[in-house]
Specification:
81% helix, 279 residues
Length: 279
């Protein structure tokens, strides 16, 4: 019996090691090695060519356009997320479950389908196409369509991060402030906002990362025109297709560094909000 137990314990001790080895091998094949290859390819001819690729007009325009998308999209979705989270946690109204489902829609629908929806609505033959043409407003294959696509795919993050924080916070502090004579804005700025600031920043961070890295929806509505409607992810794809591999890898390094910064900030905010403990 003792021998059988010792063999059983030895087998159990091997199980975690095998599982960890499988996980690390999988991550190495799909993440670590490809990521390392991006940096190797970008710097294989030295730092000089890498920096030269970052001064090309099409790259600079794509980087600037990506920043514009984030600058417009993040504040809009932050305001929307705060309003939606507050309404869903502080008010009971018919259709609440439906609103939650709509907010989660970008998680379940393909970004390409989202881009196609925008084309069908705002394209020349779309529902609003005739009115837009009449008033000389261009949405599809222009910056407004790209902003709409980026806003749609990054819509849920702020709301989904703030809702659990507001639920955990409860209404006691807000009701106490109102009882003492505070107005609605005073309650929000002095009680609610300080309590949800870390969850809000976490949602803003994820929104920014998704807006700057989105490819599918933006590709459909932009037309992918170099120097005009090409964001950084689209520039990478187009440069690689045109056999400008060094330029593509150089731009990919910039996005990878942005992702690395996002991961570091994400880890910090998770510790602040206690998300890692809950998981």
């Amino acid at each position: 019996m003792t021998i059988n137990k010792s063999r059983s314990n030895q087998k159990k001790n091997w199980v975690p090691t095998i599982l960890i080895a499988i996980a690390l091998t999988y991550l190495a094949l799909v993440l670590y090695i490809p990521a390392a290859n991006v940096f190797v390819q970008a710097f294989k001819n030295g730092v000089g060519p890498f920096l030269n690729n970052l001064t090309e007009p099409n790259f600079l325009h794509a980087a600037w356009l990506t920043v514009i998308l984030a600058v417009v999209t993040v504040p809009v979705n932050t305001v929307f997320g705060l309003c939606a989270a507050w309404a869903l946690t502080r008010k009971n109204f018919p259709g609440r479950a439906f609103v939650l489902s709509v907010i989660d829609l970008p998680f379940s629908i393909s970004p390409v389908v989202a881009g196609l929806m925008i084309v069908l609505l705002y394209g020349r033959t779309g529902w609003f196409g005739a009115w837009l043409i009449e008033h000389d407003i261009k949405v599809v294959f222009a910056l407004p369509g790209m902003i709409l696509a980026s806003a749609f795919v990054s819509m849920p993050f702020v709301a989904r991060e703030v809702i659990p924080v507001l639920d955990e916070l409860g209404k006691d502090q807000e009701e106490a402030a109102q009882t003492l004579g505070a107005s609605g804005w005073q309650v929000f700025w002095r009680v609610t906002l300080p309590s949800i600031r870390w969850g809000l920043l976490y949602g803003v961070l994820l929104t920014n990362a998704r807006a700057m890295g989105e490819f599918g929806a933006v590709s459909v509505v932009s037309g992918n025109i170099g120097g005009e409607t090409q964001s950084l992810p689209l520039f990478i794809e187009d440069a690689y297709k045109q056999y400008q591999t060094e330029a593509a890898y150089s731009a990919a390094v910039i996005l990878a560094l942005l992702a690395l910064v996002t991961l570091v900030l994400k880890d910090i905010l998770e510790k602040k909000t206690g998300t890692s403990k809950k998981v």
